[in-house]
Design goal:
Elements (H helix, E strand, L loop, with lengths): L3 H13 L9 E6 L2 E6 L21 E5 L5 E4 L4 H13 L6 H10 L8 H10 L1 H4 L6 H10 L3 E2 L14 E3 L9 H10 L3 E7 L4 E6 L4 E4 L4 E5 L2 H10 L4 E2 L8
Antiparallel strand pairs: 1-2, 2-3, 3-4, 5-6, 6-7, 7-8, 8-9, 9-10, 10-11
Length: 250
C-alpha cells in the first residue's frame, strides 16, 4: 500500500520529469483507490502593463494507484472528477482484451462514456427514416456508450488500416434502414441500426436481446451476442456466422 508520503515523492518525480530547475510543488487529493496529483503553478507577480500569458495551460493530472504505486496521466480536470474516472477505468479492466482496448481508447471511448445528447439529436434528425424501427434498451445503451466512435479494424499484419472500419451512430451523413426492415421481415426479429461498416458497406443493427448483426449485400451475419463481443469482432476481424444459421428459439 502506498502511503501519502510515498505518493508525494512519486508525484514530485512525475511532475519534474523532463523539466529542468528546482523540484516543483505538487498537491494531492486522496481517494479510495489512490491519489490524484497535480503540479502547483506559482502565481505570477502583479506588474503594470498588459497581462502576461499563464505559465501553463491545461497541465495534466496524474493518478498514483494506492496498491501498486503505478502512475497514469489524466486530463486537466477537477481532482474529484479524475478520481471518479479512475474508478470507472479500474472497474472496466478485463472488459476488453488489451489490443481492443487500445483501439477503443484511441477512438475516444472511456468507461462511463455518455453520448446521450448526440444520440438524441441524431434520432430526432432522422426520425422519419427511423419510423417503425423500435429502439430497444440494448440498442440505446450501445448508442449512448459507443455513439460517434470510429473503430478501425486490424489488418492482416496486425496493424491498423488493413481492414474495414466501423462507424457507430451518430455519424456524418444519413442513415440506411432498408436492410434493417428486410431483416425484421425475414426473421421476425426487431432490430435497430447502430452504425455501419465499410465492408459492403454494411449496416450494423442490434436486436432486443442485445445481439449484433451485420447486414451485408452478400448475406446477414451474426457479429456477437452482445455489444462488447461485437466490438471485439469488428476490431479484430475474422469469420462470422450467417444469421440464417442461428437457432432463433434461443
Amino acid at each position: 500500500m502506498i502511503s501519502r508520503e510515498q505518493a508525494l515523492a512519486i508525484a514530485r518525480q512525475w511532475a519534474s520529469a523532463g523539466r529542468p530547475g528546482p523540484e516543483p510543488e505538487v498537491e494531492l487529493y486522496e481517494f479510495d483507490l489512490g491519489y490524484v496529483a497535480w503540479r502547483v503553478i506559482p502565481a505570477r507577480p502583479i506588474t503594470h502593463g498588459p497581462p502576461a500569458p499563464p505559465a501553463s495551460t491545461g497541465y495534466p493530472n496524474a493518478v498514483i494507484d494506492r496498491e501498486t504505486g503505478d502512475v497514469s496521466q489524466w486530463a486537466s480536470l477537477p481532482a474529484q472528477l479524475v478520481a471518479e474516472q479512475y474508478r470507472q477505468h479500474r472497474a472496466a479492466e478485463g472488459r476488453f482484451p488489451p489490443d481492443v482496448r487500445q483501439v477503443l481508447d484511441k477512438a475516444g471511448w472511456r468507461p462511463g462514456r455518455d453520448a446521450t445528447a448526440a444520440v438524441n439529436h441524431w434520432m430526432r434528425r432522422f426520425a422519419d427514416e427511423l419510423t417503425g424501427l423500435e429502439c430497444s434498451p440494448a440498442a440505446r445503451a450501445a448508442l449512448i456508450e459507443f455513439g460517434g466512435l470510429r473503430l478501425p479494424q486490424f489488418g492482416d499484419d496486425d496493424d491498423l488500416g488493413g481492414g474495414f472500419t466501423s462507424f457507430i451512430h451518430p455519424t456524418l451523413g444519413g442513415v440506411a434502414t432498408e436492410g434493417a426492415r428486410e431483416f425484421v421481415e425475414e426473421f421476425n426479429n426487431p432490430v435497430y441500426p447502430i452504425g455501419n461498416n465499410e465492408d459492403g458497406p454494411s449496416e450494423l443493427v442490434v436486436d432486443a436481446q442485445g445481439r449484433v448483426f451485420m447486414l451485408h449485400w452478400a448475406d446477414d451475419f451474426f457479429v456477437g451476442p452482445d455489444i462488447d463481443s461485437a466490438i471485439v469482432k469488428l476490431i479484430r476481424g475474422g469469420p462470422m456466422a450467417e444469421a440464417s444459421d442461428l437457432d432463433w428459439q434461443t
